[in-house]
Protein backbone atom coordinates (compact mmCIF):
# COMPACT_ATOMS: atom_id res chain seq x y z
CA UNK A 1 0.00 0.00 0.00
CA UNK A 2 0.96 3.63 -0.28
CA UNK A 3 2.53 3.75 3.20
CA UNK A 4 4.68 0.65 2.60
CA UNK A 5 7.92 2.48 1.86
CA UNK A 6 10.46 0.29 3.65
CA UNK A 7 13.42 0.42 3.97
CA UNK A 8 12.78 4.17 3.93
CA UNK A 9 11.49 5.69 7.17
CA UNK A 10 8.83 8.37 7.43
CA UNK A 11 9.51 11.00 10.11
CA UNK A 12 6.80 13.61 10.68
CA UNK A 13 8.38 15.19 13.76
CA UNK A 14 7.52 18.88 13.97
CA UNK A 15 10.63 20.92 13.10
CA UNK A 16 9.37 24.39 12.10
CA UNK A 17 12.85 25.96 12.21
CA UNK A 18 14.34 23.55 9.66
CA UNK A 19 15.88 25.41 6.73
CA UNK A 20 15.84 23.92 3.20
CA UNK A 21 19.08 23.05 1.45
CA UNK A 22 19.76 22.80 -2.27
CA UNK A 23 18.62 19.17 -2.37
CA UNK A 24 15.48 19.59 -0.28
CA UNK A 25 12.30 18.53 -2.10
CA UNK A 26 9.54 21.09 -2.59
CA UNK A 27 5.79 20.60 -2.90
CA UNK A 28 3.70 23.42 -4.36
CA UNK A 29 -0.04 22.91 -4.89
CA UNK A 30 -2.65 24.74 -6.91
CA UNK A 31 -6.05 23.36 -5.94
CA UNK A 32 -5.69 19.64 -6.72
CA UNK A 33 -2.64 20.07 -8.92
CA UNK A 34 1.00 19.77 -7.91
CA UNK A 35 4.15 21.27 -9.42
CA UNK A 36 5.92 18.31 -11.01
CA UNK A 37 7.74 17.02 -14.06
CA UNK A 38 7.60 13.88 -16.19
CA UNK A 39 11.17 12.95 -15.25
CA UNK A 40 11.12 9.56 -13.49
CA UNK A 41 14.13 10.49 -11.36
CA UNK A 42 13.13 14.08 -10.64
CA UNK A 43 9.34 14.29 -10.34
CA UNK A 44 9.08 17.03 -7.72
CA UNK A 45 11.40 20.05 -7.73
CA UNK A 46 14.37 20.54 -5.50
CA UNK A 47 15.02 23.80 -3.73
CA UNK A 48 17.84 24.48 -6.20
CA UNK A 49 15.36 24.30 -9.11
CA UNK A 50 13.47 27.34 -7.83
CA UNK A 51 14.34 31.03 -7.77
CA UNK A 52 14.76 31.88 -4.09
CA UNK A 53 11.23 30.98 -3.03
CA UNK A 54 9.74 32.41 0.14
CA UNK A 55 7.02 31.20 2.52
CA UNK A 56 8.20 27.61 2.81
CA UNK A 57 7.09 25.29 5.60
CA UNK A 58 8.92 22.16 6.71
CA UNK A 59 6.70 19.09 6.35
CA UNK A 60 8.52 15.79 7.05
CA UNK A 61 11.35 13.55 5.93
CA UNK A 62 11.30 10.28 4.01
CA UNK A 63 14.61 8.50 4.37
CA UNK A 64 17.33 11.12 3.96
CA UNK A 65 15.15 13.53 1.98
CA UNK A 66 13.46 16.50 3.63
CA UNK A 67 10.23 17.88 2.17
CA UNK A 68 8.93 21.44 2.32
CA UNK A 69 5.70 23.15 1.33
CA UNK A 70 5.83 26.25 -0.86
CA UNK A 71 2.78 28.46 -0.41
CA UNK A 72 2.83 29.87 -3.95
CA UNK A 73 5.17 30.39 -6.88
CA UNK A 74 5.64 33.33 -9.26
CA UNK A 75 7.98 31.73 -11.78
CA UNK A 76 7.54 28.09 -12.79
CA UNK A 77 10.94 26.50 -13.54
CA UNK A 78 11.64 24.88 -16.90
CA UNK A 79 10.54 21.24 -17.31
CA UNK A 80 7.93 21.66 -14.57
CA UNK A 81 4.21 22.35 -14.68
CA UNK A 82 1.14 21.95 -12.49
CA UNK A 83 -0.28 18.49 -13.06
CA UNK A 84 -3.53 16.95 -11.84
CA UNK A 85 -2.71 14.73 -8.85
CA UNK A 86 -5.24 12.05 -9.78
CA UNK A 87 -3.77 11.70 -13.28
CA UNK A 88 -0.24 11.77 -11.90
CA UNK A 89 -1.12 8.90 -9.55
CA UNK A 90 -2.34 6.81 -12.47
CA UNK A 91 0.85 7.42 -14.44
CA UNK A 92 3.77 5.01 -14.26
CA UNK A 93 6.32 7.45 -12.86
CA UNK A 94 5.27 7.54 -9.19
CA UNK A 95 6.92 5.14 -6.77
CA UNK A 96 5.11 4.23 -3.55
CA UNK A 97 7.40 6.61 -1.64
CA UNK A 98 6.67 9.43 -4.11
CA UNK A 99 2.92 8.83 -3.85
CA UNK A 100 3.01 8.63 -0.06
CA UNK A 101 5.00 11.86 0.18
CA UNK A 102 2.67 13.59 -2.28
CA UNK A 103 -0.55 12.51 -0.56
CA UNK A 104 0.76 13.37 2.91
CA UNK A 105 1.98 16.77 1.75
CA UNK A 106 -1.41 17.43 0.15
CA UNK A 107 -3.10 16.55 3.46
CA UNK A 108 -0.98 19.06 5.34
CA UNK A 109 -1.39 21.69 2.63
CA UNK A 110 -5.18 21.34 2.85
CA UNK A 111 -5.03 21.74 6.62
CA UNK A 112 -2.81 24.83 6.50
CA UNK A 113 -5.03 26.45 3.86
CA UNK A 114 -8.20 25.81 5.87
CA UNK A 115 -6.74 27.23 9.08
CA UNK A 116 -5.46 30.74 8.58
CA UNK A 117 -7.61 32.41 11.27
CA UNK A 118 -9.11 31.14 14.51
CA UNK A 119 -12.66 29.85 14.20
CA UNK A 120 -13.42 30.94 17.78
CA UNK A 121 -12.28 34.56 17.86
CA UNK A 122 -10.96 35.40 14.38
CA UNK A 123 -7.39 35.85 15.53
CA UNK A 124 -4.39 34.99 13.38
CA UNK A 125 -2.95 31.48 13.66
CA UNK A 126 0.75 30.75 13.82
CA UNK A 127 2.89 27.62 14.06
CA UNK A 128 4.39 26.56 17.37
CA UNK A 129 7.63 24.70 17.91
CA UNK A 130 6.46 22.17 20.50
CA UNK A 131 4.18 20.10 18.24
CA UNK A 132 2.39 20.07 14.89
CA UNK A 133 -0.32 22.57 15.74
CA UNK A 134 -1.43 26.13 15.05
CA UNK A 135 -2.03 28.53 17.92
CA UNK A 136 -4.34 31.53 17.97
CA UNK A 137 -2.38 34.69 18.79
CA UNK A 138 -5.39 36.15 20.64
CA UNK A 139 -7.25 33.42 22.55
CA UNK A 140 -4.50 30.78 22.56
CA UNK A 141 -6.64 28.01 21.03
CA UNK A 142 -4.63 25.12 19.59
CA UNK A 143 -5.67 23.58 16.26
CA UNK A 144 -4.29 20.21 15.23
CA UNK A 145 -4.25 18.60 11.77
CA UNK A 146 -7.68 17.26 10.90
CA UNK A 147 -7.83 13.52 10.27
CA UNK A 148 -11.24 12.10 9.33
CA UNK A 149 -11.94 8.41 10.15
CA UNK A 150 -13.54 6.29 7.43
CA UNK A 151 -14.07 2.62 6.61
CA UNK A 152 -13.42 0.39 3.61
CA UNK A 153 -15.64 -2.71 3.59
CA UNK A 154 -15.22 -6.03 1.84
CA UNK A 155 -18.68 -7.62 1.95
CA UNK A 156 -18.40 -11.38 1.33
CA UNK A 157 -21.06 -13.69 -0.05
CA UNK A 158 -19.57 -17.18 -0.13
CA UNK A 159 -17.05 -17.18 -2.99
CA UNK A 160 -17.96 -13.64 -4.12
CA UNK A 161 -17.25 -10.13 -2.89
CA UNK A 162 -19.23 -6.93 -3.43
CA UNK A 163 -17.51 -4.50 -5.82
CA UNK A 164 -18.76 -1.02 -6.64
CA UNK A 165 -18.15 1.94 -8.86
CA UNK A 166 -18.68 5.52 -7.74
CA UNK A 167 -21.44 7.70 -9.13
CA UNK A 168 -18.91 10.48 -9.87
CA UNK A 169 -15.45 10.18 -11.39
CA UNK A 170 -13.50 9.41 -8.19
CA UNK A 171 -12.65 5.88 -9.30
CA UNK A 172 -12.04 6.77 -12.97
CA UNK A 173 -13.74 3.57 -14.05
CA UNK A 174 -12.11 1.16 -11.61
CA UNK A 175 -13.72 -1.22 -9.16
CA UNK A 176 -13.83 -0.31 -5.49
CA UNK A 177 -15.36 -1.52 -2.24
CA UNK A 178 -18.03 0.04 -0.06
CA UNK A 179 -16.64 2.97 1.91
CA UNK A 180 -17.70 5.93 3.96
CA UNK A 181 -16.97 8.32 6.81
CA UNK A 182 -17.63 7.59 10.46
CA UNK A 183 -20.27 9.90 11.92
CA UNK A 184 -20.47 11.48 15.36
CA UNK A 185 -21.19 8.87 18.04
CA UNK A 186 -20.52 5.89 15.77
CA UNK A 187 -18.08 3.03 16.20
CA UNK A 188 -16.28 1.72 13.12
CA UNK A 189 -18.52 -1.35 13.25
CA UNK A 190 -21.63 0.85 13.26
CA UNK A 191 -20.22 2.68 10.25
CA UNK A 192 -19.72 -0.61 8.40
CA UNK A 193 -23.34 -1.63 8.99
CA UNK A 194 -24.75 1.77 8.06
CA UNK A 195 -22.67 2.33 4.93
CA UNK A 196 -23.37 -1.13 3.50
CA UNK A 197 -27.09 -0.70 4.13
CA UNK A 198 -27.17 2.86 2.73
CA UNK A 199 -25.12 2.15 -0.40
CA UNK A 200 -26.15 -1.42 -1.24
CA UNK A 201 -29.25 -2.21 0.84
CA UNK A 202 -27.61 -5.20 2.54
CA UNK A 203 -27.35 -6.38 6.14
CA UNK A 204 -24.01 -7.74 7.34
CA UNK A 205 -22.61 -9.87 10.17
CA UNK A 206 -19.26 -11.19 11.45
CA UNK A 207 -17.52 -7.81 11.10
CA UNK A 208 -13.76 -8.19 11.45
CA UNK A 209 -10.95 -5.68 11.27
CA UNK A 210 -8.20 -6.09 8.68
CA UNK A 211 -5.82 -3.13 8.41
CA UNK A 212 -5.64 0.68 8.38
CA UNK A 213 -4.20 3.23 5.96
CA UNK A 214 -3.59 6.98 5.90
CA UNK A 215 -5.06 8.56 2.76
CA UNK A 216 -3.95 12.16 2.53
CA UNK A 217 -5.95 13.07 -0.58
CA UNK A 218 -9.12 13.04 1.51
CA UNK A 219 -7.47 13.79 4.87
CA UNK A 220 -8.61 10.41 6.17
CA UNK A 221 -7.44 7.43 8.14
CA UNK A 222 -9.06 4.38 6.55
CA UNK A 223 -9.97 1.29 8.56
CA UNK A 224 -10.49 -1.85 6.48
CA UNK A 225 -13.06 -4.47 7.49
CA UNK A 226 -14.33 -7.72 6.06
CA UNK A 227 -17.84 -8.93 6.85
CA UNK A 228 -20.40 -11.45 5.63
CA UNK A 229 -23.73 -10.66 4.03
CA UNK A 230 -26.58 -11.46 6.42
CA UNK A 231 -29.70 -12.86 4.79
CA UNK A 232 -30.96 -11.42 1.51
CA UNK A 233 -28.25 -10.88 -1.12
CA UNK A 234 -30.27 -8.67 -3.49
CA UNK A 235 -28.43 -5.38 -4.02
CA UNK A 236 -30.24 -2.05 -4.00
CA UNK A 237 -27.80 0.78 -4.69
CA UNK A 238 -27.87 4.40 -3.63
CA UNK A 239 -27.52 6.06 -7.04
CA UNK A 240 -26.30 9.31 -5.49
CA UNK A 241 -23.21 7.42 -4.23
CA UNK A 242 -22.74 4.54 -6.66
CA UNK A 243 -23.17 3.93 -10.37
CA UNK A 244 -23.05 0.17 -9.90
CA UNK A 245 -22.59 -2.60 -7.34
CA UNK A 246 -22.40 -6.34 -7.97
CA UNK A 247 -21.22 -9.64 -6.57
CA UNK A 248 -18.08 -10.85 -8.31
CA UNK A 249 -16.34 -14.22 -8.06
CA UNK A 250 -12.80 -14.17 -6.68
CA UNK A 251 -11.29 -15.38 -9.97
CA UNK A 252 -12.92 -12.48 -11.83
CA UNK A 253 -11.55 -9.71 -9.60
CA UNK A 254 -9.40 -7.23 -11.53
CA UNK A 255 -8.48 -4.70 -8.86
CA UNK A 256 -6.96 -1.30 -9.55
CA UNK A 257 -4.03 -0.25 -11.76
CA UNK A 258 -1.64 0.40 -8.85
CA UNK A 259 -1.18 -1.23 -5.47
CA UNK A 260 -1.33 1.99 -3.42
CA UNK A 261 -4.79 1.62 -1.89
CA UNK A 262 -6.25 -0.42 0.94
CA UNK A 263 -9.19 -1.15 -1.37
CA UNK A 264 -6.93 -2.82 -3.93
CA UNK A 265 -5.09 -4.87 -1.30
CA UNK A 266 -8.33 -6.15 0.20
CA UNK A 267 -9.71 -7.16 -3.19
CA UNK A 268 -6.46 -8.94 -4.10
CA UNK A 269 -6.38 -10.69 -0.72
CA UNK A 270 -9.82 -12.14 -1.38
CA UNK A 271 -8.87 -13.07 -4.94
CA UNK A 272 -5.60 -14.85 -4.23
CA UNK A 273 -5.82 -16.38 -0.78
CA UNK A 274 -8.98 -18.47 -0.88
CA UNK A 275 -10.77 -18.10 2.44
CA UNK A 276 -8.16 -15.93 4.16
CA UNK A 277 -10.40 -12.88 3.94
CA UNK A 278 -13.18 -14.73 5.75
CA UNK A 279 -10.81 -15.79 8.51
CA UNK A 280 -8.67 -12.65 8.70
CA UNK A 281 -8.17 -11.42 12.25
CA UNK A 282 -10.86 -12.05 14.82
CA UNK A 283 -14.48 -11.03 14.84
CA UNK A 284 -14.28 -7.69 16.59
CA UNK A 285 -17.98 -7.06 17.01
CA UNK A 286 -20.82 -9.45 16.48
CA UNK A 287 -23.16 -8.84 19.36
CA UNK A 288 -25.22 -6.30 17.41
CA UNK A 289 -25.23 -8.14 14.08
Commentary on this structure:
This protein has five helices and 16 strands. It has about 290 residues and is of the alpha+beta class. Strands 10, 11, 12, 13, 14, 15 and 16 form a seven-stranded mixed sheet that branches. Strands 1-4-5-2-3-6 form a six-stranded mixed sheet. About 30% of the residues are buried. Mean pLDDT is about 90; it is low at about 280-289.
Please state the overall shape, judged from the principal axes of the Cα atoms: globular
Uncertain segments are: 281-289
The SSE string, one letter per element, is EEEEEEHHEEEEEEHEEEHHE
Biggest sheet overview = 7 strands, mixed
Strand count:
16
From the alpha-carbon coordinates, what is the Rg to the nearest angstrom? 21 Å
Helix run count: 5
- Helical content band: 10-25%
Distance between the termini: 30 Å
**Mean pLDDT across all amino acids:** 90
What fraction of the residues are assigned to beta strands by DSSP?
Answer: 25-35%
Which structural class matches the secondary elements?
alpha+beta
List strands and helices in order, with pairings:
Layout: E1 10-11, E2 25-30, E3 33-36, E4 56-62, E5 65-70, E6 81-84, H1 85-90, H2 96-114, E7 125-127, E8 134-136, E9 142-143, E10 148-157, E11 160-166, E12 178-181, H3 188-200, E13 204-215, E14 220-229, E15 242-249, H4 262-272, H5 276-279, E16 283-285
Parallel strand pairs: 2-5, 10-14
Antiparallel strand pairs: 1-4, 2-3, 3-6, 4-5, 7-8, 8-9, 10-11, 10-12, 11-15, 13-14, 13-16
Amino acid sequence: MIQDIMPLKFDNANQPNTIPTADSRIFCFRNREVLSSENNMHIFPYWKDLSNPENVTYLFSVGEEKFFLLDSIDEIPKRFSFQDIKKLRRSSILTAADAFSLFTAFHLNSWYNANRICGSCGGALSQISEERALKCEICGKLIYPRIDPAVIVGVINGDSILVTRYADNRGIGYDALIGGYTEIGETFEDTVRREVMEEAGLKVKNIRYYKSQPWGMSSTILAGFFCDVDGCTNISIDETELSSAKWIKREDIVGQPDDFSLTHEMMMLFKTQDNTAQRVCSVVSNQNS
